[in-house]
Amino acid sequence: NFFSNSTIQRQSKLRTDENWIQEKMTDNKTRYVLMNRNEIVVIPTNKRHLTLLNVNYEMIEKYLPANNRNFVFLGEQDKQCIFAVHLEKLVLAEIVKLHQEARVIHAFPGALKLRQDEASLYSHAVGMLSWQRSQRFCSVCGNATVIKDAGYKLTCSNHKCSTHKGAVSASYPRVDPTIISAVISPDQSRTVLARQPRFPPGMFSCIAGFVEPGESVEACCVREVEEEVGLRVHDVSYLSSQFWPMPASLMLGCLATADGELSVDSAELEDGRWFTREEVVDMMCGRHAGGLFVPPVQAIAHQLLQTWV
């Protein structure tokens, strides 16, 4: 699945080797991927596709954050190390001026135009850097956190903090498990699609929601579908997963069976309907008479529907 098919070797065993990480950070063969929150620096390859701008240490040395904050070691590819770094907007603008074709774009939907391997790099980077920014201070004592293990671990800078005495003495990257399900009628002729108010006009997608503590994927699927459209599903089966970097959801794709009239939760959804197979095919191909459509092929919702049709 898109965002989840990286060819990079993450080299997790080397993250704790501070000397090796420092050596690779300053090696001019190393590539840096540049970001600012939900913005990335890219170079157009043609009208439809983009590639990430990669710079070396010499080009960004003076801009790198103090104490290695807001950076992460992504791994190695073809014996070349790759890091991602979060930089302020003005810094990105200054770097872009040095590259005639480079430009700063919003990562969504811009990242959908990247090659799949680069999209996976982006999802890795944004998930890690978003987590770092959200955990700048210790949740127990309020002191600043310190980055360890090449960006994959945060500890409290106050050595007297109780976090250094318990079983859990550090913060690790956050990933939010989320179910997304194609709900299909028993005769396989119809599926339920819904839309949230934040969706682009005309877009419908599969039912989705966060897995809660103490809940299995199957139980979450049953609960979310019942809460959002009033149907009781059965025969829940897992299909595949996708990391969705908005900023760190692990989408667990399921198929489920249900039938009956919908009771749409207006607090959650703007609309929800049964759609026939023919309607969904038209929506996937961009030829629906009412201008309705489903998420793009890069999204797991599209893949779930593709499996059904």
Automatic annotation (TrEMBL):
Superkingdom, taxonomy of origin: Eukaryota
Positions of the Nudix hydrolase domain: 173-306
Cofactor(s) the protein requires to work: Mg(2+); Zn(2+)
Enzyme Commission number(s) of this protein: 3.6.1.22
Recorded catalytic activity of this chain's protein: a 5'-end NAD(+)-phospho-ribonucleoside in mRNA + H2O = a 5'-end phospho-adenosine-phospho-ribonucleoside in mRNA + beta-nicotinamide D-ribonucleotide + 2 H(+); NADH + H2O = reduced beta-nicotinamide D-ribonucleotide + AMP + 2 H(+); NADPH + H2O = reduced beta-nicotinamide D-ribonucleotide + adenosine 2',5'-bisphosphate + 2 H(+); NAD(+) + H2O = beta-nicotinamide D-ribonucleotide + AMP + 2 H(+)
One Pfam assignment: NUDIX
Name the UniProt record assigns to this protein: NAD(+) diphosphatase
Family statement drawn from the similarity comment of this UniProt entry: Belongs to the Nudix hydrolase family. NudC subfamily.
The species this protein was found in: Capitella teleta
Annotated keywords: Hydrolase, Magnesium, Metal-binding, NAD
GO CC, alphabetical: cytosol; peroxisome
GO molecular function annotations of the record: metal ion binding; NADH pyrophosphatase activity
InterPro entries: NAD-cap_RNA_hydrolase_NudC, NADH_PPase-like_N, NudC-like_C, NUDIX_hydrolase-like_dom_sf, NUDIX_hydrolase_CS, NUDIX_hydrolase_dom, Znr_NADH_PPase
Gene Ontology terms describing biological process: NAD+ catabolic process; NADP+ catabolic process
